Amino acid sequence: MVAQPLEHLRHSLAHLLGAAVLDLYPGSKLAIGPAIEDGFYYDIDFSSAELRGQTRIGTQTYADQKMVISDSDLPKIEKKMREILKSWEVFEKIDVTPDEARKIYNGNQYKTELINELEKNKQPITLYYSGPETSIPAKKSLLQATSYKPQAGFLDLCRGGHVEDVKEIDPEGFKLTHIAGAYWRGSEKNPMLTRIYGLAFYAKEELDAHLRMLEEAKKRDHRKLGKELGLFTIAEEVGPGLPLFYPKGAILRRLVENFITEIQEKRGYMPIWIPHVTKGELYKISGHLEKYDALYPPMRLPDEADYYIKPMNCPHFMMLYKSLPHSYRELPIRYVCTTTNYRYEKSGELSGLTRVRSLTQDDCHVFATSEQIEKEVGLMLDMIEETYKVFGFNDFHVRVSIRDIKTPEKYIGDSDVWEKSEKILEGLIKNRNWKYDIGEGEAAFYGPKLDFIFKDVIGRPWQLSTVQLDMNLPQRFGLEYVDTDGTKKQPVVIHRAILGSTERFLGILIEHYAGAFPVWLAPVQVAVLSVSDKQSEAARAVEQRLKNASIRAELNNENETLGKKIRGAELQKIPYLAVIGEKEVVSDMVAVRQRGKGDLGQMSVESFIAEVTQEEKAKSL
Fold this sequence. Notes:
The chain is built from 18 helices and 27 strands. It is α+β, with helices and mostly antiparallel strands. It folds into four domains: 4-217, Threonyl-trna Synthetase, Chain A, domain 2 (Threonyl-tRNA Synthetase, Chain A, domain 2), CATH 3.30.980; 228-274 and 325-513, Bira Bifunctional Protein, Domain 2 (BirA Bifunctional Protein, domain 2); 275-312, no CATH class; 526-618, Rossmann fold (3-Layer(aba) Sandwich). An eight-stranded mixed sheet has the order 11-14-15-22-19-18-16-17, sandwiched between helices. The longest helix is centred in the N-terminal third of the chain and has 21 residues, at 4-24. Mean pLDDT is 89; it is low at 55-64. It catalyses: tRNA(Thr) + L-threonine + ATP = L-threonyl-tRNA(Thr) + AMP + diphosphate + H(+).
């Protein structure tokens, strides 16, 4: 979450961007300009804009000559922002009536829509003035906010949150980055606006550091590496957000999922299987049919109920538990399933593997008594700790999301169970000496939760694992167990995902390692290279010996120079190269090259197999 003072600085710069646009392109219609993580943006309608200083063509009006701006215009806008900033001294709030606000924004349908909503909801309507301190306009003589007039300052419809002193804004601490299209209020039914993005920090040094990080992130982009390394693709004919995995990518995801399966099944978690479609009645019981907005439309079958492709697994788990009678002696029951869900995410929000429409979850639901919560969550934390250690995710913190006790009506479940559960969750994290913070009011309405946020090697935060306590679905589905005294009680359900989503986890993993996976994760562990055609058969035999030892080997017997073969294998970031020349054939040896270390010299095939096998078992980074 963006720190509050920095958020104010970024929001102030959104106003500055708006002023610069109105100065350069009078008649533009400003829509919304919020602060976001790392910066700010402004959505703008340029359809009625003029270009200041532009010469009309013949008798055409500016409206006839449609205004289109691109990334190449950003330096000009940025320069204008710095020029305007020199004359700004204050941000001042001005309370106005709905009618006054509508008069000021007459002709701007976006601001007018917001004003009407504020009036309907009986919320205050405020403008913020920024400009010279000596020329603050009086309420009753406000000019229309359709162009920037330096002598009159800049007005924007805004609820506030700005720097207290304009001098807090470093003129070199911000940068406009790119332009994108954005539908008004995120709806495809509304007009497409131009969104101008900017980065902003307290000082130039912080901005420069962030830009270096972004440059490194480009090199690590999993979409770029996924193509270069032959891991996955997204085909238009299949659909956006529906990735297809090549053999190497399929091997990588299998390795990751198998690792999770191993660590949880040895701790008593039991695999189940659930179908990918269900009758709508299931989601009616769970409440998703009414509340969840990412459901795909129903499949309407003649003479049958509507069926839905599943966007989540929880209701299926509930029904599996409910289908059998249960005693306290059986609890906890730990069900796990790695299965794919399908969610209708907006196309503009999709991104490679990190935001998809088909997401595979390592989903777990534990049915337990309230007395078992501490032990069961502790077991989950053990698995998360083991996973993070193996994958090299050492820099992480935990957000303990709890209730807002001032609004108890927002939550369901027994207050005593909530209080006990929240203390248990915080205590478990505290006892492990893990970094954590408390997210007051960030709990789900059905229970408190833990969210794990780790930083990758270039400092970007990612939310991964989650543990959630649920007192809602057991109630909605009428789940029960027979307690020691013979009475029926309601279990607590603990939701848990370590990877979260396999696809998203793989996207993060590719970028974390920049595609250079450790031996145990590498889809191809060894590239076998023949020096010439004379060693082809010997190289093929070595490849087979490696495969027989369960080493993932790939042979390159192409009619190419050895240098080209080595270069190709290095570009594929393969951990080991085993070169077969005349000497190696005679002595049953291989000349070994290791990624990052270069030539290791000759070794026998059996010794090489032992070394690779040992490194794989150690799961070293």
